Amino acid sequence: MIATSPSPARGPSPIWTRAFHGFNLLLLLLMAASGLEIYNANPVFGGREGATVPEMFTLGGWLAGGRDWHFAVMGLYAANLGLWIGLLLRRRHRRLAGSGDLDTLRASVSPPRRRLASHRITYTLMLIVLAFSLITGLAMYKPAQLGWLVSLFAFAEPAGHSSWQTLRVCHLATIPVMGLLVVAHVVLSWRVGGLRLLRAMVL
């Protein structure tokens, strides 16, 4: 029987990677909480009498406070996201999904390869959703200046929904979608590299 040497332990990720994960998590929580405060002032579903979010999950205390927090954090959020995408494309592009990962999910019978492909796809989807939330947020922040962007959401008008309402729904939807992707990212990271990988990402 041939003995196999254990694989070398994975060290902590570069400091900029760990800093991004921690800072981005903080920004996402602040953006979500302040966004839900804005939502409560005029719920997307049901108008001003619609269902609201418990105050314990919001930030700002009232509409103006929520807007102040949301727009203050938005600049940091955009800069952090842009920097991270730039670093990924330059140094760590192999973390992003490609057509080969989709082929792996369809044809591969190797569980480790399928898990790694799923991890890359989930990671890439997270970046897409984050960028989409920023784009829709900018369209809501400056609807007069970015009217062409708002008009892209007019696809639901035949069903009786204005482009503004559709835009609000799409922007709000990024919160639960991002939450699910974060959970999937953590689970897949654990399945790919175990607790050692999760700790290397943040410690």
UniProtKB/TrEMBL annotation:
It holds the Pfam family Ni_hydr_CYTB. It comes from the Bacteria. Signal peptide: none annotated. It is found in: Cell membrane. Gene3D superfamilies: Transmembrane di-heme cytochromes, Chain C. It is a multi-pass membrane protein. InterPro entries: Cyt_b561_bac/Ni-Hgenase, Di-haem_cyt_TM, Hydrogenase_cytochrome. The chain crosses the membrane at residues 20-39, 69-89, 121-141, 172-193. Its main location: membrane. Residues 14-202 form the Cytochrome b561 bacterial/Ni-hydrogenase domain. Keywords: Cell membrane, Membrane, Transmembrane, Transmembrane helix. The keyword tRNA processing does not apply. This is Cytochrome b/b6 domain-containing protein. It comes from Cyanobium gracile UHCC 0281.
